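Subject: Sanity check before I submit

Could someone independently write out the structure tokens for this chain? I want to compare against mine line by line before I put it in a report. The sequence has 150 residues.
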Amino acid sequence: MSRFVVVSTIFMGWAFYELSGGADFDPALNRAVRKAETTPEAVPPPRPRPARALSDPVPEPVAAPVPRPAAETQGAAPPTAAEPADLRRVSASNVNLRAGPGTGHAVVARLDEGAAAEVMEIDERGWAHIRLAETGQEGYVAARFLTGSE
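---
Independent answer below. Compare away.
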């Protein structure tokens, strides 16, 4: 049994020596190759991509006519301006857009970094109810993945 252990160790040492380059191995050259492969110039910057739906494409929402109150049609004062939209951007890549507030809800889309969204509400647990600016799709994301107001 001890012969098997000795022979196996010698064989594994020889195999490692050969696979690492044998007598032609140059550690300085190996470091230079690794450094050249990891320089920032060799890696192109990521491109922003639109949100990808995980299910069938959702048809574009159609705006329904807004009913006007009787007071407005009778010459009453015009309504005050609505609050400006709270627009934010996704600050990470592949952020899950969920059907409800929590990780137990289904993922309906994945958002790429930089995707614009209108924040409609943020609950006490840190989940933001958003509407995507590009598609109008609504869902929930963790508020920590949204940048500050624009």
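---
OP: Matches mine. For the report I'm noting this point. The two ends are 72 Å apart (CA to CA).
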